[in-house]
Design a protein that fits this description.
Helix content is 33%, strand content 19%. The protein is an alpha/beta fold. The longest helix is centred in the N-terminal third of the chain and has 16 residues, at 79-94.
Amino acid sequence: MTGVPRGPSSRVVITGMGAISALGASAESHWAALRDGRSGIAPLQHARSSDLRVRVAAQIHDFEPHDHFNERQLSVLDRVSQFALIAANEAVANAGWTPATTTGPRIAVIIGTGTGGETSRDEECRRLYQENAARIHPFSIVRAMASAPASHIAMAVGATGAVFAVTSACASSNHAMAQAALLIRAGIADIAITGGTEACLSYATLRAWESMRVLADDTCRPFCRQRRGVVLGEGAAVFIIESLAHARARGTEPLAELAGAGMSSDAGDIAAPSAEGAAAAMRSALDDAGMDVAEIDHINAHGTGTAANDVTETLAIRQAFGAHADRIAVTSTKSMHGHALGAAGALELVATLGAMRDGVVPPTANFLERDEACDLDIVVGQARYMPVRAALSNSFAFGGLNAVLALRQCPL
């Protein structure tokens, strides 16, 4: 992606959003909790909790699938697709868009996920290996495949254009939204439904994360001296993005402009982060948006709460922004909605858009003491009221996969 002058047909704007997370069943309730510094992290509730060392998670409680879907639909919907559809339906309504008014081939659906239908895969493996079942569910494949959420959304809105999944671990959402923006810029689509979804709190996934020894046993404290690691979360956030020309034609007011995206690969270690790779993605996002470093007021950081990640991201921000790094309000909302892996960037984009719209940067929750190695202007304690003209949203994944979105106030 390159920063070149763009007209209304190639400028990309965000016009609708929807979400479901441990903080609420809508984008607005998710944002309200973040703004108020309310955490969704709580003791893990799982049928096999006694077998797990994982103690906390950001789970969606009191979720009843039958409130949203009938039995026939549920036969083919993993929890990851259920979340995606709920968020997509809200985004469509929030955008004031009637899908039938846009021809199917001009509608794209690009959804990111890190693990796909993990709960269905886990359940069928349990039946196969523990119960020695002779058969497993006939829809096991279509429930578990990573592209299922995108396909179900496409069927719901009649999208017959480009529809696919993006999976790049914890950068999946941001990569998906970057790809959707590229389709619009290229004139391949007029409007896209894009974002991320994750339902990763299966027994096998929890045990796998235990083995990595990066999970916190208390809570998530990004950039804090007492940080102890990641807290897993689940949920989805989905957005309607479209060309500025398309938005103007239907008389809608954008939430913000998706001005640029930067993507890079560390090409180094499969697990250890690289400051150089992360900095390259941030610089690329700014170049793509045609922005100067001084324009950025706020960064929603990747901020996982691990010892290595937070220091590396601090170094990366300083490499990318130089002296201006000290004037950027930085926060990590994973401290409240947990690390939702492939959905993380999308849940964080809801926060970034809320900060721009309302002029308030949410705090990094659970913060105790500052770490000298994380010497940025971390917003802690309570939300900071300030104008946010432009912002970055960072996602950095295992495998050295980096994706950064650049947002600015909408041009209308």
